[in-house]
Specification:
Structural class: alpha/beta
Strand content: 5-15%
Radius of gyration: 52 Å
Number of strands: 5
Distance between the termini: 138 Å
Oligomer: single chain
Length: 206
């Protein structure tokens, strides 16, 4: 170690072992410090921040207005009601709704034969306080054939061999065809065969 030192350093330090050792420690410390400064000063990789997509608020569907886009039916409310006439009601309405739309039934009117819970169909007539349909074999003043063009489901239900389902078929046929041109049209109604038509032909009129 001594021989490797410069001559001026050997002369200054008197080439004593302690001086040589001190100089060596200083040199080692200086090299280490320089290496540390170089390492800490080197460029550091920078990580780009993650891109967070904006959270959009949920879009709620618009609430449809009551009755918007709903189908409606047209019925004729006549007879003993306060305000008879044509009424436009939401599809699925019942006889009770038609009576309410016509101002209600007049006091003293017998509605025992009227099914208030029945669902209405487009184009039908709700006749309040009308006489009951003729009974087969009955005769007397005022008795006559039932009009297929204006009879309600309840009235048709009173005919022989006609229940509520067949009565509804007759009203549906009348609505689809715009009425009955003749009694013979009854043959085209679903559920009326020749035998049933023979029982009904004298009890009804177009």
């Amino acid at each position: 170690m001594r021989e490797r030192l410069p001559m001026w350093l050997q002369a200054r330090c008197g080439v004593e072992p302690r001086a040589v050792a001190a100089v060596g420690v200083v040199l080692v410390a200086a090299v280490g410090f320089a290496a540390q400064q170089y390492w800490s000063g080197r460029p550091q990789p920078v990580t780009a921040p993650a891109v967070v997509a904006p959270v959009s608020a949920p879009v709620s569907a618009p609430t449809p207005a009551p009755g918007a886009g709903g189908s409606r039916i047209v019925v004729d409310v006549s007879g003993k009601v306060r305000d008879p006439g044509i009424r436009r009601l939401p599809a699925g309405s019942r006889v009770e709704d038609a009576l309410a739309a016509a101002g209600g039934v007049r006091p003293g009117t017998d509605t025992g034969g009227l099914n208030r819970a029945r669902v209405l169909v487009d184009g039908e007539q709700v006749l309040v306080g009308a006489p009951a349909p003729p009974v087969p074999g009955a005769s007397g003043p005022g008795a006559g054939p039932l009009s297929l063009g204006s009879a309600t489901v309840d009235q048709l239900d009173g005919l022989p061999g006609v229940g509520p389902v067949l009565a509804q078929h007759i009203v549906d046929f009348r609505t689809a065809r715009g009425g009955f041109r003749s009694v013979e049209d009854l043959r085209q109604v679903n559920g009326i065969g020749e035998r049933r038509f023979a029982d009904l032909r004298k009890l009804v009129r177009p």
